[in-house]
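Pipeline run #58 for the internal structure catalog. This entry was flagged by the ingest filter as a single-chain record with no existing model, so it goes straight to prediction. Upstream metadata was stripped on purpose; only the residue string is passed forward. Reviewer on rotation: M.T. Logging verbosity set to normal.
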Amino acid sequence: MKAALQNYQDRMRRVLDHIDRHLDDDLDLERLSAVAAFSKFHFHRQFAATFGLSVHRYVQLARMKRASYRLAYSDVQSVTDIAMDAGYEAPDAFARAFRQRFGQSPSSFRNSPDWEPWLVAFGPLDNARSKLMQKTFTNDDVTIRDVPATRVAIMEHRGDPATLGDTIRRFIAWRKAAGLHPRTNPTFNVWRSERRPASPAAYSVDLCVGTDQPIEANGEEVKAGEIPGGRCAVLRVVGYTDNLEPAALYLYRDWLPASGEEARDFPIYCQRLSFFPDVPEHETVAELFLPLK
């Protein structure tokens, strides 16, 4: 029974992988049922029973998430181009669907996102993925490195994590104006609180970009700092790097007690090596660093 269940879940997981890898393709029921090797007459019910939402809605949400990221964090594409990439034949159809889901027009969201309804809208997508897409780690996934010190520019986020998107937008705009491109200047997040503290106001994370040049704030609250060098346990995470809490829990709960190592007096942090939607979500890469004595 256990082997049969594992096989079933693997087939369903294959469907989610296929959707994320082929968001621009025709993702009809017949094609997706063939990916899972299930009958097309039953697959839509099997999918909904497993993930809590229909295949059609899952695909819509995945495409809409990519579209909303492009609107909020990039100005490279026009709203029309983003609508076409999301599978809509006309911008007005995309605008209606976007407003219905988020309570804002695409243009309004691009100018000033309201993050609370955005987070609620993607709850079903995150829940569906968490059912079968949880990563598991082993000791072989962790390496110990001697990491050099890195001078960084820091933009602090303090307060409700629901407003983190606004800080990220400001951080992206500031680093772009400063000419600190992710290809040439590494990006770090330093967590100074739990992901979900008892009070949202206690949430604290530093958004950092590596740079040796003098910091020009240009009206933003940006300061110079340093990520100290030294030994670190490093865990590389590939795909769906929005939530690195499972990786951090593995390091603290499983790897650290069994390793004989002791944590150093600096917070756990990550370096983001690739970003959604520049790459598909399953191709995003982050490395988690646990400083050691």
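catalog note: The longest strand covers residues 150-158.
catalog note: The two ends are 46 Å apart (CA to CA).
status: ready for reviewer M.T.
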